[in-house]
Specification:
Elements: E1 2-7, H1 13-24, E2 29-32, H2 39-50, E3 57-60, E4 74-78, H3 80-90, H4 95-109, E5 115-121, H5 132-151, E6 154-159, E7 162-165
Parallel strand pairs: 1-5, 1-6, 2-3, 2-4, 4-5
Antiparallel strand pairs: 6-7
Amino acid sequence: MITYISGGERSGKSRFAQNLALADSDYPYYLATAKKWDENFEERIQRHRQDRNEQWTTIEEQIHLSTVLPDTSTVVIDCVTLWLTNLFTANQYDRDLTFAQAREEYNKIRSYEGHLIIISNEIGMGLHAESKMGRDFVEIQGWTNQLIAQQADRAYFMVSGLPLTLK
C-alpha cells in the first residue's frame, strides 16, 4: 500500500505521516533522505528526530531507497524533495537523467509488501524559478509527484496542518 502526502513547507506533512504510521504499526520505520548540507539543516534533522520516540527505527539513505527497505513494515519516506535534490546533484543537474533514475527507483519501491507513506513538497505553486537549474528541478519534482500520486492508493494534500483527501 502507498500513501502519498504532499504540501508546502511546514504544512504538517511529517506529523500527519507519523500519526498515520503509528496508527498502522507499533514499530514503524522512518527512511530519512536528508543530506546534512549545513548547520541549519543539521538543526532541522535534529528537530525531526526529536519528534519520534523509541518506537521508530530510522534508516538513512540519500539515493537508493529500494536497497534499504525492511522486509515488510510501515515505512515513512521523508522526503521526495530531498531525495530528488540528492539525485539531481549526483547527476550534475541533468534534468532528464535525474527524472529517469527517480522513475526507475520509484518503480522498484512501489511493489513493496508493506505500507509506504511517502512525503513530498509541492514547490511549483509559487514564484517561477529564476534559473534554468531551478526550473529544471521544479519540473523533476512535479513529474515525480504526479507519478507517485497517480499510483498511490491514498493521497493527501496538507494545508495549514489539515489534510485534504485527494483520493
